[in-house]
Amino acid sequence: MLCVTLLGLLTMELGWRAVKGAPLLSWKDPVNEVGENDAQVFSNLMGTVVYDEDLGWVPPSLTNYENLDLRFIEYGIRRNNPKTTIEHGAILAVGDSFTNGAEVGDHQTWPAQLEAILGEPVLNGAVGGYGVDQIVLRAEKLVNTVRPKILIIGMLDQDILRNEYSSFGAPKPYFTNKKNQLVRHNLPVPTLSEAKSQKKSDWSILSRSYLFRDTMRIFFPTFMMKTSGQIFETITNDPIEISCLLLKRLKTFTSKRKIPLLLVMQYGGGAAYTLDDKPAHSTTVMDCASSLNIPTFDEFETLQRVKEKGVNELSSHYVMHQLEPPIFGHMSEKGNGLIAEKVAGLLMKIKSDGYDFAVKETNKHNKSSELTNIKTSEKCLLKTKVNSRMDLPIEPRAEYRQNMNSLGKLVISSDI
User: Which of 57, 178, 207, 381 would bridge 203 by S-S if both were Cys, CB 3.0 to 4.6 A apart?
Assistant: First the structure.
């Protein structure tokens, strides 16, 4: 009887793996599947981040990883150029690994290439593995520290779904909604060792079963998964709703400080390759941004036009881990360059259309106008050759210099 039961369970396990396209004979820990390979995303961070009681993990300040072409200056800002100190009044970009520029060198990230296009400093405060909750919290901390003139939030669509995690590889802060008010949890954030010690069992044998883990996730949403020393644990909230409330919070935060806020939505190569329509969760969050008068650029349609040219062209915008079948990593230098050009175009378009982010400019008329949501069109793609060497002088095009100098006249409150 026992043998029949075990044989039946084994048959079900193999059948389920076949349905999922999982390895039939591998008994390594399966990873949690939310769009991209989450365990790999966090695994790539190990050794390049340190524990932080507010955010879960942050890059270490003034640390170099020469073998990865990865260098951090003050406050865990990724370095774009030879300078090792931050500049107040710069543009600040905060996001996850797609903004940070995982798998490419310091000067190949989109914030670094945006700096080269504009000819003025852009601080890269992004951190790999972050959800929208951590991105907003980090942005608030850095704004109060570096006092930027513009804040750009870089958001991968998967970052929205990470809001429903209390541990994403390692413990992190998270929010729930109580009568349309954000309630923060995990403060201070437990360390990874503390989180492990609080769990009596890691289901070390059963957790290697795809059938068991997926069944547990269906009937017990808060089931904790451990993968190669990592912890992925979900909680009960609405990650899309939380993202919208967080954007509202951040908009209020930046408006009080008279700092323009922009939102850039990005997508992994797997989503760009397999999807023909924009995911519902990113569409809803972008609609929330529109309702808050936050200028936006959504990368999805741009990637669809790239895909129309063939899979090879799409692959050239990503660091490929495998060509056939395609396994996409983070964006390549070329892909990041496209984002940088689009963001530069958005900044120019906002100014040329007369929008001033609903703040007052330092001129004698002291006028302000109502902000309308902007979505960059194809004509905003500026075919600017990006300087890809950190040690070369930056000479921005005249139209960028003129528009960005005008943007720089925006009042920045001194009470930050």
Answer: 207
pTM for the model stands at 0.75
Provide the terminal-to-terminal Cα distance of the chain, rounded to the nearest Å: 71
Give the number of other CB atoms < 10 A from CB of residue 82: 8
Structure tokens at 366: 């002291």
* CB 272, CB 307: distance < 8 Å: yes
pLDDT tens per residue across span 168-205: 989 999 999 999 999 999 999 998 888 767 654 445 55
Sheet-wide strand order for 296-298: 122-124, 91-94, 150-156, 261-266, 296-298
Is it true that the peptide bond before 111 is cis, omega within 30 degrees of 0? no
> What share of residues in the chain are helix, strand, coil (percent, to 5)?
40, 20, 40
Residue showing tokens 């003050």: 74
Phi, psi of 351 (to 5 degrees): -70, -40
Helix residue ranges per DSSP H, 221-376 = 239-256, 269-274, 280-291, 300-307, 311-315, 333-352
CA atoms of 16 and 10, how far apart (whole Å): 10
Alpha-carbon distance of 347 to 271, in angstroms, equals: 27
Tell me how crowded residue 355 is: count the other CB atoms within 10 A of its CB: 18
For residue 240, which amino acid is it? Answer: I
Give me 243's structure tokens. 């993202």
Q: Contact at 8 Å (CB) between 110 and 141? A: no
Contact 138, 128 (CB under 8 A): no
| Cα–Cα distance measured from residue 119 to residue 396, given in angstroms and rounded to the nearest whole number | 5
**Model confidence over 83-127: pLDDT tens digits?**
888 889 999 999 999 999 999 999 999 999 999 999 999 999 999
- Please tell me the distance from the alpha carbon of residue 251 to that of residue 90, in angstroms, as a whole number: 19
385: three-class secondary structure by DSSP: coil
- The predicted pLDDT at position 205 comes to 56
Q: Rounded to an integer, what distance in angstroms lies between the CA atom of residue 393 and that of residue 401?
A: 15
